[in-house]
Design goal:
By secondary structure, the chain is α/β, with parallel strands linked by helices. Helices cover about 50% and strands about 15% of the residues.
């Protein structure tokens, strides 16, 4: 049989305790020599397995499918997949007989039911660990944003500072570090760049004056010190609210806890200057629904204009001529209002659903605590086993050879690493889906009343939250509702209790079935940009 060695390590939180690529190759080559395995290739990858699309991984499977190899040698099954698609693909190849073996330092997996079942468990645990880590990272980022911290690399003009007070990353220089030291205080996690910061400030203030066109501004930036600045980078600087002390993330603005380079008024003047230099448009921001709706006949975007004191929306006819007529803004807004009303969730349903969810939530919290205790007990057991193994090996009357000791130690260590990975991924996190559901309920219950009172930007946000692919044909609006709202479509036209409440709400099976649906909707809401 012919084997391929596959090694992978990424910057993912789950991979922190995994051996380096070089160390993995060394271990697996020694394993191949020990078992007298014929290795026909080594594939190295520095990419996460949480999502599909790994180039080397796909090349390896293609080679196996072509019959050029029969098995894989890998440090651990988590190196192969942390997503359900790639894991399922590998198991399916075993079903088809194309992949005959997967060998790790601890285990051999072949095309028999028990082995494939264990593989499915490992892949599922790896995916669960990655999912939990993703949730943890999202919460961690949200916590940082709430505190006013930048969650990504600081933009040009600012510096990231590590916990030791040193400049982090490629922007470090002794000159900048010495200049920051002259501030005579403890450095914050983000500081104004003492060299590039003043240059960025000068450039932004010049743009705010509105006297230069695009080429002149770029030339000015190069003249004052930004020699190799790209146009795309330059535009990001001009539109980044960080420079007036705020952070923009997923359409929301958070107040930063760092020093601003310019005032908010200067930033507004920059945006005004940029809009004045762009192609003339008819007061785009006065029309809340332009850029959201397409013509149902030709597919062009709907535009708007003012005639005799009234706002009319019409097809822009950018793609083709069509025969669609104007529609008054009042009529369009009535239809948008009606679209919102179709997915507004009745209070009676929310009140009933909340009781069901809180009951399941309590049970899930208890289960989570129980799982943590069991994991900790198992970890303690493995560490005691590891200690006893060493004690037995070192004892005068030990019957263990060195190879036997190392083999058993490696197996126990691998179990400890996998268990610690899972514990770290969800350690300290709480059951969160219920708060996602509550947030979704609150938004959906209030969106109709808010729509009538909020500003243009918020109107657009509310509309985009409920649906997409808005289309206008013969003055009639159609909406493709977001997946999260489809179960509630026209719910307000029915009795909430008779539509979604189980016939026996006190029954455990009915209650948990409904709770699972709600958790699914909550996850959709949490991931909705």
């Amino acid at each position: 049989m012919k084997y391929i060695i596959y090694v992978r390590k990424s910057s993912d939180r789950e991979d922190h305790q995994i051996l380096s690529i070089g160390s993995q190759i060394k271990v697996l080559q020694e394993l191949a020599v020990k078992k007298n395995l014929q290795v026909v290739g080594i594939y190295k990858e520095e990419k996460t397995a949480y999502k599909t699309g790994r180039v080397k991984f796909n090349e390896m499977l293609s080679k196996i499918e072509d019959g050029k190899a029969d098995g894989i040698i890998v440090y651990h099954l988590t190196r192969i997949a942390r997503n359900s698609f790639d894991g399922g693909r590998v198991i399916y190849m075993m079903d088809e007989g194309k992949l005959k073996e997967i060998i790790t330092p601890e285990t051999l997996y072949t095309n028999i039911p028990d082995h494939k079942f264990m593989m499915q468990i490992h892949f599922a645990m790896a995916k669960k660990s990655s999912d939990d880590t993703s949730t943890f990272v999202k919460r961690d980022n949200q916590t940082k944003l709430d505190k006013g911290e930048v969650i990504s690399l600081a933009p040009i003009g600012y510096l990231n500072i590590d916990k030791d007070g040193r400049i982090a990353g490629k922007r470090f220089s002794n000159e900048k570090q010495n200049l920051l030291a002259q501030l005579g205080r403890t450095l914050n996690r983000i500081e104004i760049d003492p060299i590039d910061g003043p240059l960025v400030k000068t450039m932004l203030e010049k743009v705010a004056e509105g006297t230069l066109n695009g080429k002149e501004i770029l030339k000015y930036a190069q003249e004052i010190g930004f020699k190799n600045i790209k146009k795309s980078t330059f535009l990001k600087i001009l539109t980044n609210p960080v420079y007036y002390g705020c952070i923009r993330c997923k359409g929301k603005i958070y107040k930063g806890n760092f020093e601003a380079l310019i005032s908010q008024e200067t930033f507004k003047n920059i945006q005004l200057a940029m809009s004045n230099r762009s192609k003339p448009r008819k007061q785009m921001h006065s029309f809340p629904y332009t850029g959201l709706i397409r013509c149902g006949e030709c597919g062009s975007m709907i535009t708007a204009e003012t005639q005799k004191g009234h706002v009319y929306y019409r097809c822009s006819k950018k793609k083709a001529n069509c025969n669609q007529k104007y529609i008054r803004s009042e009529l369009l807004e009535e239809q948008l209002h009606e679209s919102l009303s179709k997915v507004q969730i009745p209070d009676a349903f929310i009140e009933w659903a909340s009781k069901q969810l809180k009951s399941v939530y309590k049970d899930e919290v208890k289960l989570q605590e129980s799982t943590r205790m069991k994991e900790q007990q198992e970890l303690n057991r493995l560490k005691k086993k590891q200690a006893r193994l060493l004690e037995e090996y070192l004892s005068a009357d030990s019957v263990l050879t060195k190879d036997e000791y190392l083999d058993q130690k490696q197996k126990v260590s691998a179990e400890i690493i996998l268990l610690e990975e899972n514990m770290q991924a969800h350690g300290g996190t709480e059951v969160k889906w219920i708060s996602d559901c509550e947030e979704f309920f609150d938004f959906s219950r209030e969106m109709l009343s808010k729509f009538d009172t909020v500003n243009i930007e918020e109107k657009r946000f509310i509309i985009q939250s409920i649906g997409s692919n808005f289309s206008l044909l013969n003055r009639e609006l159609t909406v493709e509702y977001q997946k999260i709202y489809q179960p509630f479509f026209r719910l307000n036209e029915f009795e909430a209790q008779s539509r979604l409440e189980p016939k026996k709400p006190e029954g455990q099976a009915s209650k948990y079935s409904f709770a699972n649906k709600m958790k699914f909707w909550g996850e959709l809401w949490d991931s909705n940009p």
